[in-house]
Design brief:
5-stranded antiparallel sheet; 4-stranded parallel sheet; 22 helices; Rossmann fold; 530 residues
């Protein structure tokens, strides 16, 4: 079998993309490749533990919940091999037994059979279908169990157990940055040196007279085998999760790797080529060829003009030895420089662009996220968080609220405008360290900032896009329609803060004829000018 055919199991269009119960008698090399690529995830341990606890006569049901392509059917197909003799499995709740029936009707039948039998049931079900059955299903008992779970996912029932892929995020942020164990293990499995059926096929291809596309595939595989390149790819997947709210599923990642290796170009071009893969579609937006800095513009201009550059020629010669030839544009080289940014290669010509590919926003997000997640009142943590709240969050909130009154100063918040007059009130908005200490942070996609004004507490979910907006506001940027999603959150918080600030005993009125301070003293209003 040729390499391209073996790698076809990665594609989402392959019949191997979705697990089914195949006969073990007629298995071929494609089955071997698929089996080799299987990565056990932490959720599988939880599922196995739950199923193992079921007795053959226990009237219990396990729902494995998730989204399309996350690996439910693969996981349950394996579980059925081990436990199928003593319990019933319904691998995919989106399917119907009857071509004229619906998936809901099929579930009704499955649940009726479960109630009539004396054995446990395991169901793989999408989150959407779970909600649909709670609304439309016929089995009242099961509907009530599902509804209770959807209302409060922290409660578990002894007879109905829910295990959800959402509770096992692919990305975990820790003290040393972030981890994506699943993607890391998969890329390592695909490219490892020993006992690797895919690499064995690669070595066979190297011994043959190959066409251009196969030589490019081999070069792509060798690039993918570099740990530093794998790190760049995982960085981009994480960036897509943070900035484009793109979830990582097993099926999407396998198909993405297929496109990286077998796309129309070299891996560094395929990485940003977009297409119908959901991951590639989001990562296309991060194409480093679209960056504009002095060094990048200088390189593009020199390349287009064909100006001599001996250091660059040395770098190109080393690329040719790796099997990477005939790169035609400066944009392609920029993508390659980006792909190799963590690695030493040849004369390290690409390292001269390291600062141009700096991901300072992601680093800032990780730092502040981790401070919130692990906050325990330690003085260093507190000082670092106070700096973020004072210099970034509160400063941006004040600037945003006072955008039509930039001269109010740090003490006041604008309450309202009346023609040529503006009314403001002093407001000491501060970090709410107690709420931060009591909070829990689960999703890597956002953290909750906690503020207080007088006795009023505020909570603001901050994702990386909102953090970027806060930083930009402090640098003089004025939000526009392109910032809609982040501005909505900021508007809601600003309205709450202004409402609370109205309770102040002091206001200031500014207009064309001067500034007036009004202060409530018992039942008297003291007025001063200036």
């Amino acid at each position: 079998m040729r390499l391209k055919e073996a790698l076809s199991v990665l594609s989402k269009s392959s019949p191997y993309a979705v697990s089914t119960e195949r006969s073990t008698i007629n298995q071929n090399i494609l089955d071997d490749v698929k089996s080799y690529l299987y990565i056990q995830m932490p959720i599988e341990t939880a599922v196995s533990k739950a199923i193992s606890s079921f007795g053959a006569n226990d009237k219990k049901i396990l729902f494995l919940c998730g989204s399309s392509g996350d690996g439910k059917s693969e996981l349950l197909t394996k579980a059925k091999v081990n436990f199928g003799s003593r319990m019933k499995f319904h691998l995919d709740a989106t399917h119907s037994f009857d071509p004229h029936g619906t998936a809901i009707q099929t579930l009704d039948k499955v649940f009726d059979e479960f109630e009539a039998s004396g054995s446990p049931l395991v169901v793989g079900i999408n989150a959407g279908m779970l909600g649909n059955y709670a609304e439309e299903g016929q089995n009242q008992l099961i509907r009530s169990k599902i509804s209770e779970y959807l209302k409060n996912k922290n409660t578990q029932d002894d007879t109905a157990i829910f295990i959800n892929f959402e509770d096992y995020p692919k990305f975990e942020i820790g003290e040393d940055g972030y981890e994506c164990d699943f993607a890391k293990k998969l890329l390592q499995r695909i490219t490892q040196q020993e006992n690797n059926i895919i690499r064995q096929l690669i070595e066979k291809e190297k011994l043959q007279q190959n066409d251009t596309s196969t030589l490019r595939l081999i070069a792509n595989f060798e690039l993918l085998s570099l740990p530093s390149v794998q790190k760049v790819i995982i960085d981009l997947l994480f960036k897509a999760r943070l900035m484009r709210d793109q979830f990582l599923t097993a099926r999407a990642l396998l198909d993405f790797v297929h496109e990286l290796l077998l796309g129309d170009g070299y891996l560094f071009d395929n990485l940003f080529a977009g297409g119908d893969n959901e991951l590639a579609n989001k990562i296309e937006n991060f194409d480093p060829a679209h960056h504009r800095t002095k060094e990048i513009d200088r390189f593009i201009l020199a390349f287009d003009l064909g100006l001599p550059d001996e250091e660059f020629n040395v770098f190109i010669s080393a690329l040719n030895q790796l099997g990477i030839t005939n790169i035609e544009t400066g944009a392609q080289y920029l993508r390659l420089f980006y792909l190799l940014k963590y690695d030493d290669f040849a004369n390290n010509y690409h390292k001269s662009f390291a600062d141009d590919f700096n991901e300072s926003l992601i680093k800032s997000y990780l730092t502040v996220y981790q401070l919130h997640k692990s906050y325990n009142g330690d003085s260093n943590q507190k000082n670092n968080l106070k700096e973020f709240y004072r210099d970034t969050l509160i400063a941006a909130i004040r600037t945003y609220i006072n955008r039509n009154a930039p001269k109010l100063g740090k003490k006041f918040f604008l309450l309202s405008d009346f023609g040529n007059y503006q009314i403001a009130a002093p407001a000491d908005l501060t970090m709410d360290s107690k709420s931060i200490s009591n909070a829990t942070t689960n999703s890597s996609a956002f953290f909750n900032a906690h503020l207080k004004l007088q006795d009023k507490k505020f909570k603001l979910p901050i994702n990386i896009n909102l953090l970027s907006l806060l930083i930009n506001i402090n640098n003089g940027y004025r939000p526009n329609k392109h910032d809609k999603n982040s501005v909505i959150l900021l508007d809601e918080l600003a309205a709450e803060i202004v409402q609370q600030a109205k309770a102040a005993k002091e206001i200031v009125i500014t207009g064309v004829d001067g500034k007036y301070h009004l202060e409530l003293d018992d039942e008297d209003i003291m007025v001063s000018e200036g």
